[in-house]
Amino acid sequence: MTYINEALWLPKRGGDLAVGSSTYTAPKQGEVVVRTRAVAVNFIDAMPGFAYRFVLPWLSFPAVIGSDVAGEVVEVGAGVTRLQVGDRVVAHAAGTEKSRNTSAEGAFQDYVVLMAHMVAPLPDSLPFKQAAVLPLAMSTASCGLFQKDQLALALPTANPADRNETVLVWGGSTSVGVNAIQLARNAGYRVVATSSPKHFDWLRSLGASVVIDRTSSDVVDELVAAIGHQPLAGVLAIGSGSLPPTIEIAARLPGSKRVSTTNPSPITSVRARLARRRGVTVSTIWGGTLKDNEVGPAIYCDFLPAALASGAYRAEPVATVVGDGLASIPAALDRLREGISATKLVVRL
Ligand SMILES: NC(=O)c1ccc[n+]([C@@H]2O[C@H](COP(=O)([O-])OP(=O)(O)OC[C@H]3O[C@@H](n4cnc5c(N)ncnc54)[C@H](OP(=O)(O)O)[C@@H]3O)[C@@H](O)[C@H]2O)c1
């Protein structure tokens, strides 16, 4: 089987993205090919050329970047039984990951090769454009919450028992945060979050018990008081500046002393060393690591399909469609660089 493929190529570090033809790559063992119908854009797709040296130093060029895909399965590789041709799916594309490093697996193309265990079937009621908001944000939250080297929480299930422990999600209104809130709730934890006040109701509707203004001058004391009556299960620190207050909170409260951050900075290792003296362990998240451990299949195969179908999990935040066709993606990246709030930018293909 073969199809005519087009991709948005990044010719070199710091080069200009351009649409061009690409070969169709058939799926190998454990893979599927999806006809992409919607992609979302993330900060890593919008980073400046020089940052590739530090963030994706292994990446081969020309490259096809992009992580968030929704579309239809068109070909299934050997050994894949849970997905069929024609299935509507959402998936985390792994082409820029060090262990994959292949343009065939980048999201920004018409036909993308995907690891089958990072693909989840969609209910008919969920449009591709809205499903596309999920993958990298949900994967990043899942790595932080569930991996053994991060917060090591219990995995989400259909009918979770109440655990009487609290997860703190700092940066609850980010795309990563709204996934973290829902994942932690579906694993039976109470969730306390931070955001700006305009997002409080939204985060409560997703399962947060208490939401505190992250810019409040008393934010640490307010969070300690809100969490106080239950032990901490762990802290997810999302967004710049999230590490100092969350380390302080973990040091002061009973329970887990683990803080998992999405935003390593040049001084993260210094902060982590100082935190260790107070009994707090800081770890940094790379949102693609779940593809190589039990968390990836637990989320994409075991949890998400049924949770989306039952309504126990919502594809949030709301998608803003900013264009159609691969050629619209560079403008979507420009818009992302200007900053977004409570939305994810999506391009339909
Ligand atoms: N390590 C990884 O693998 C990985 C993967 C994906 C993303 N990330 C990082 O995770 C962060 C979130 O990404 P995203 O795509 O989920 O974000 P996003 O959806 O673009 O988040 C937008 C929201 O962030 C909130 N915000 C702004 N500044 C903040 C700050 N300093 N602290 C906390 N919240 C802040 C704002 O809401 P309020 O006004 O309500 O606070 C805004 O609505 C980014 O820094 C991103 O680089 C890391």
UniProtKB/TrEMBL annotation:
GO molecular function, one term: oxidoreductase activity, acting on NAD(P)H
Domain Enoyl reductase (ER): 14-347
Official protein name in the record: Zinc-binding alcohol dehydrogenase family protein
